[in-house]
């Protein structure tokens, strides 16, 4: 049996939910096309209602409920985008929604979910503990569970995104994978009409459960470790998403947090596009060369969501600017006398650098009496400017070392 038989059902779902969702833009990027060596079209699902693709599956499930089921209300377990998608869909359709989130859920996502009118219950440290609470509520109240990826209605709802890609006739579509609902729906929509289209999934190396499952052709569980791509950290996919992926997805590759962070910053700076870690995984796989492409290939990386925590974004930007030597920290040891700090700072000004921080250290073991160690952190306009700065300090008789 091929899952592509569900294509017509996806078309019906699209017609049923189109009044509730956006058809998100597909944006050709010359910058990324030149960097990657292919025709890159970004699917901007970060501009979807609630900030991610999850509303597609939520509306698909909720609009398909019988009247008696609607009266019982719905319940979902999620720490992020699925919670917001279900809460929003329930509010629009006038259905009571209960969302169980782990106590460790980001406060921004908790507040966003609550703002959509859902009853939010914080329970447990991890999702499997939250699920136990949800099961208790289901037994007591008969609420209908809206699973994030183990439900065919949800999967086919995510497949409406795939219908929006069909007119572009892509050679390769790259999709982030957590539990596999999004890539499963997209694969059905695309493979039904063009079996030659390659579907490539991307997982975080911190959570490779579907990559390993597909390689072994059997479902396995792998406990995730930490990643900035929290939206795709899943211990195990569902039986149905595994079966669809095993049949229809051509390959799954892994990216690490460094590659994901790099993609987030590039998207923000070059494309003026804000995405979360999970969404950046698709572009990260292309930028890091994990997927083989040529200039003749039309490639669509799906940017699945934009709900990034702002404090996390700030840390990522600082980290990548430091890594790429756009921000540097320089160490000098000089006599503890007036004028020496001024010499260092004047050389920073000479290259049009912007000082961020200055720290004195007179007590470390490598500092002789009467001397001070100074750390200067500053923005650098270019690599050549940094070389000029180091050379000019040497002319002043001051040895400077970059702190990596």
UniProtKB/TrEMBL annotation:
Q: Name one GO molecular function term.
A: L-serine ammonia-lyase activity
What Gene3D superfamilies does the entry give?
A: 3.40.50.1100
Q: Which CDD domains match?
A: ACT_ThrD-II-like, Thr-dehyd
Q: Which EC number(s) does UniProt give?
A: 4.3.1.19
Essential cofactor(s): pyridoxal 5'-phosphate
SUPFAM superfamilies cross-referenced by the UniProt entry = ACT-like, Tryptophan synthase beta subunit-like PLP-dependent enzymes
In the record, biological process GO terms are:
isoleucine biosynthetic process; L-serine catabolic process; L-threonine catabolic process
Q: Give start and end of each Tryptophan synthase beta chain-like PALP domain.
A: 18-303
Its keywords, alphabetically, are: Lyase, Pyridoxal phosphate
* Protein family: Belongs to the serine/threonine dehydratase family.
Q: What is this protein called?
A: threonine ammonia-lyase
Species, as recorded? Sulfurisphaera ohwakuensis
């Amino acid at each position: 049996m091929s899952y592509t038989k569900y294509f017509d059902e996806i078309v019906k779902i699209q017609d049923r939910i189109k009044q509730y969702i956006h058809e998100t833009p597909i944006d050709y990027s010359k910058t990324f096309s030149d960097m990657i060596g292919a025709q890159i079209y970004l699917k901007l699902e970060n501009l979807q209602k609630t900030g991610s693709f999850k509303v597609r599956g939520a509306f698909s499930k909720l609009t398909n409920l019988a009247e008696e089921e609607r009266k019982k209300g719905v319940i979902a377990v999620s720490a992020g985008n699925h919670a917001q998608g279900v809460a929003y869909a329930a509010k629009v359709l006038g259905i009571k929604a209960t969302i169980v989130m782990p106590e460790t859920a980001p406060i921004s996502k908790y507040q966003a979910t609550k703002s959509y009118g859902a009853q939010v219950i914080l329970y447990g440290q991890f999702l499997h503990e939250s699920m136990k609470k949800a099961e208790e509520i289901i037994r007591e109240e008969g609420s209908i569970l809206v699973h994030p990826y183990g439900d065919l209605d949800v999967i086919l709802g995510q497949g409406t995104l795939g219908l929006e890609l069909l007119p572009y006739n892509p050679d390769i579509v790259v999709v982030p994978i957590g539990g596999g609902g999004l890539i499963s729906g997209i694969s059905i929509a695309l493979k039904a009409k063009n079996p030659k289209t390659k579907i490539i999934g991307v997982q975080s190396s911190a959570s490779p459960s579907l990559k390993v499952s597909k390689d072994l052709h059997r479902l396995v569980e792998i406990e995730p470790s930490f990643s900035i791509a929290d939206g795709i950290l899943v211990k195990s996919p569902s039986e149905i998403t595994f079966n669809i992926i095993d049949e229809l997805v051509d390959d799954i590759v892994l990216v690490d947090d460094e590659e994901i962070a790099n993609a987030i910053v590039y998207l923000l700076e070059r494309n003026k596009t804000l995405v979360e870690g999970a969404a950046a995984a698709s572009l990260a796989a292309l930028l890091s060369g994990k997927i083989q492409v040529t200039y003749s290939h039309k490639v669509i990386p799906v940017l699945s969501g934009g709900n990034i925590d702002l404090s996390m974004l700030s840390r990522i930007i600082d980290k990548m600017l430091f890594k790429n030597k756009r921000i540097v920290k320089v160490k000098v040891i000089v006599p503890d006398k007036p004028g020496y700090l001024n010499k260092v700072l004047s050389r920073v000004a000479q290259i049009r650098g912007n000082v961020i921080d200055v720290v004195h250290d007179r007590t470390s073991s490598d500092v002789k009496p009467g001397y001070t160690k100074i750390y200067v952190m500053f923005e650098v306009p270019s690599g050549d400017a940094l070389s000029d700065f180091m050379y000019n300090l040497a002319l002043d008789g001051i040895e400077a070392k970059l702190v990596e």
